[in-house]
Amino acid sequence: AILDSDPPPAIRFNRDLPAELERIIGKALEKDRNLRYQSAADMRTDLQRLKRDTDSRPQVAVRAETFVATKQHKWRVSGMVIAALILLGAAGIAVYSAYHRAVAPPFQNFAITQITNSGKSVAAAVSPDGKYLLSAVDDNGQQSLWLRNIPTNSDTQVIAPSDASYQSLSFSADGNYLYLLKATSNMGLRFNLLRAPVLGGVPQIVVRDDNSGATFSPDGAHMAFVRGNDPEPGEFSVLTSNIDGTDEKKITTGPNAFFPNLVAWSPDGKRIALVIPGPGEARSSIQLHDLASSKVRTLARFKDLPLNSIVWSPDGRGLLATYQRDIGFVARSQIGFISYPEGQFHTITKDTNDYQTVTLSADGKTLATVQQKATQILYLMPARGFASNPPNPALAQSKDAAMFGWARNGDIYFGDDSNLLRTSTDGRNTATLLNDPVAQVIRPRGCADGRYIVFVWANHSSSKRVNIWRVDIDGSNPKQLTYGATDVGAVCSPDGRWVYYENLDSLRLFRVPIDGGTPEIVPGTTLSGGLLASPGLGLSTDGKLLVFLATSSDRKMSVGKLVLVPLNAGPKPHLQFVDPDPRIGHFPEFAPDGKAIVYPVRENGTDNLWLHPLDGSPGRRITDFKTDMIQTFQFSLDGKTLGVMRTHTESDVVLLHETESSPQ
């Protein structure tokens, strides 16, 4: 029975098992078959020998010895088969365990090489063969594209300098073309996807209104991208097309509340990874869209890791990404890895630099990124600005502050990472009003009545949220005013009754009573016609008007409108729409006299402040800085002084080379 039986069902071939496991099973079964044939031959030989030796013996004895011999051989073969099965099972378990063991994330050991040293590289991509590097260089607002042959360190300019802004650089799968997003305005809210031959040539638009950049199918024949306000305002579409932009096809659509600004096509060609905000309490999520079935599943959700860029590892074992280490909108980005299919997160870089963009060579061994170091400097000047030599940096500075605000007595508040500081303008007296080592204090502003300071508190009590709080002017009695996930930009009303702010997830403007209560949408700020509020709002000193910049889903409107909202004018106030200077940046504020709007404009890579009168008279610049960009600005509460915080950024391209044991 043992010799003639089939292998037990547990060890039959399974076509879904790993090839290595099938090989081991096959080898074991081959040994089992050999045992069968060998044992049967041995038994025949033994029986023949027994027959010859016992011809003179009684037949019963022959039968008895034959029975014993046969039984012994059956036990012998049975034991050998059982041993083989035990060996087979152990081998199968070992292979299964090895197959399902967590794969080590890439770049756990790497060597880092700085490729550029001008401090002006703002984006980069490595070619599939790892031999070329494409970088965007910004020189006083004129951006150009350069191709470097990495082995020879030779550079070739492939796109000449122009008043342009490039991002999301990439190579086609065959390495013959360059792809890049080009902004259609200074605000950088709308982009077109361009393509150019790798050795130079005039870039051609292949996709209009691309909000994600291109990700390519493994065969290099198609690409995927995201378009906002499509097919209707307030919606998005994920599309595929040929690599020249023809034959667009929608693969999924959805509301802008789940807008996927990052996409990555898997190396097996079966799915596209999408990074969306939320859902629920999640700060961001990675969803996998199956191209064959259109089914979607969530790979990972993160409460505290906003993702800025993603790319699949070539072996398909996961996604590399840049992510923000801290909750909030003032944070440094690092590089990490999310495994597939487990969705486990692993850190790669762990330093004080800021990393922007990530691309990989086809073998997955070389990673290109831009390493940034930014410093903020505060300048103080008369409210009218200046027209000649820039002022010297203010004596009041804070190393880790990216925002500032005014106190009623003329002191300066800084959100210095984990601290809320108050500093005299001469820099001699500094006091720590509040300290929270595991959180961020951002953009503090004093209220005009001198009672409170309002600020953004990110990740307080490990909440993984960004909310508006108020404290007394000595830092005592903190009170939470909002409970959303991304509430920013707090401004006190001049009468001290309200705190106005914006929720970044919904792009809506709210106000909440200064003593706490239920927030309400500011009447008149929910716009129709595809207009949405961009970050930043200003209040007039008399408290009668609010201003914000609204961007449009209309593809013909690249800048948007300044919206003036009468406050306390009922549920449907009459709005005034103003065309801003086309070079407008962000964060409009009222001039101290309430007769003009002030906002940054960008020219030749430098930000300056523009005064926009509301009576229709011509506008003019009120500052004349020669370099750098404006992080934020604010007039003092008495209207006499203008504070401008500027950001200077040094950014260069670095390559991470995966190694076996090299230190990071």
What characteristic shape results from the CA principal axes?
globular
Number of helices: 2
Structural class: mainly beta
Mean pLDDT: 83
Residue runs with pLDDT of under 50 for 5 or more positions: 1-100
Question: Share of helix among residues?
Answer: 10-25%
Give the number of DSSP strands. Answer: 45
Description:
The protein is mainly β. The chain is built from two helices and 45 strands. 12% of the residues lie in helices and 44% in strands. The chain is globular and about 65 Å long. Mean pLDDT is 83; it is low at 1-100.
Structure described in brief:
The protein is mainly beta. α1 packs antiparallel against α2.
Write the topology of this structure.
Elements: H1 19-53, H2 59-100, E1 110-114, E2 121-126, E3 132-139, E4 142-149, E5 154-162, E6 166-171, E7 177-183, E8 191-197, E9 204-208, E10 215-216, E11 222-228, E12 235-242, E13 249-255, E14 262-265, E15 271-277, E16 284-290, E17 296-302, E18 307-312, E19 318-324, E20 333-339, E21 345-347, E22 354-360, E23 366-382, E24 401-406, E25 412-416, E26 419-423, E27 430-435, E28 440-446, E29 452-458, E30 466-472, E31 479-480, E32 487-492, E33 498-503, E34 508-513, E35 520-521, E36 531-539, E37 545-552, E38 561-566, E39 576-578, E40 589-590, E41 596-603, E42 606-613, E43 620-621, E44 629-635, E45 641-658
Antiparallel strand pairs: 1-45, 2-3, 3-4, 4-5, 6-7, 7-8, 8-9, 10-11, 11-12, 12-13, 14-15, 15-16, 16-17, 18-19, 19-20, 20-21, 22-23, 23-45, 24-25, 25-26, 26-27, 28-29, 29-30, 30-31, 32-33, 33-34, 34-35, 36-37, 37-38, 38-39, 40-41, 41-42, 42-43, 44-45
